[in-house]
Amino acid sequence: MEGEIEKTVEETTHTNSEQRKAQQDHAAGTIAAAIKALRDAQETQTSHEDRNDKRNRTINVITLFGVLLTVIFTGLSWCAFREQVNEMKLVYVPIKQTADATKAALVAGQRAWVRIDEMGVGGSGLSIGNDGASVSISFMVTNVGNSPAIKVTYRPKLVVLAQGVAIPSEQEQVCDAARHQWQGGFTLFPNEQFPRTLGLGQSSFGVNASKDTIERGAEISADKKSVALLVVGCVDYTFETDPDMHHQTPFIRELTRRDARIGIRIDDRIIPAEELVLREFGIAMGIGRAAN
């Protein structure tokens, strides 16, 4: 009886041991399967990331290559464009030079040339007073060209010689201002002289200088009471073959007494026109005989 009990206990113990072992084997298998599944998932993820990384690197390489090709194409296009521009210049410059030469020849052959024959003092002469100085200037001009001169106008200015005054610059300023606007004017036909005689009754143009400039001019004289006066400017005109261009005949004249031994004094008040004359200025001899 005791032997059977021990045998039964041993069998029961063996059965329980087998069950525990089966359970442990099952648990171990489950854990192993889970570990394998986790490892497979990790490998799958790693493989996927590797593929994405390779794809991104490939895209970056392609993009960089495309940018490089674009830069090269742009550079080559610019070089080709620059060469085309240079070739166009080589073709255009001679054409323009020919056209300019043709136009210049046409203008030179069919243009007006206004010459200043004489300038004089008109009106009542030179007045010097509290308001400064004023005088009227008359012109006699001739069109020596072969085309009518149109919009002919006179642009005179009375200048007082003083410290810092540059006479040629004063003349250039007057003529430069004239180039920026037209002021009516008259027409002078080829070989026509206007007016026929110079003096009273003919058109004259008043010019003046301020009291301040008169006083500044007197400061440089020996007696502090004499002034040197000049009339500067140009005759402005145009003609049909070059209507938008201002052509000019410049002039610089010194206003003096006919008796050059007597100067112009600021206390003279009134000097009659017949006692005055406009002489060609020393540094500008011949100005007024030629036009542009």
Total number of distinct structural domains: 2
CATH architecture of the largest domain: Sandwich
Whole-number mean pLDDT: 82
Give me the count of strands: 12
Structural class: alpha+beta
CATH top level of the largest domain is Mainly Beta
Which overall shape is indicated by the principal axes computed on the Cα atoms? elongated
Sequence of secondary-structure elements:
HEEEHEEEHEEEEEE
- The CATH topology of the largest domain corresponds to Immunoglobulin-like
Residue windows where pLDDT falls under 50 for at least 5 positions: none
| Helix count from the secondary structure assignment | 3
**Beginning-to-end CA distance, first to last residue:** 155 Å
Please state the CA-atom Rg, rounded to the nearest Å: 52 Å
Instruction: Work out the strand percent.
Output: 25-35%
What characterizes the major β-sheet?
Answer: 5 strands, antiparallel
* Percentage of residues assigned to helices: 40-55%
Briefly, what is this?
The chain is an alpha+beta fold and 292 residues long. It contains 3 helices and 12 strands. The longest helix is centred in the N-terminal third of the chain and has 108 residues, at 2-109.
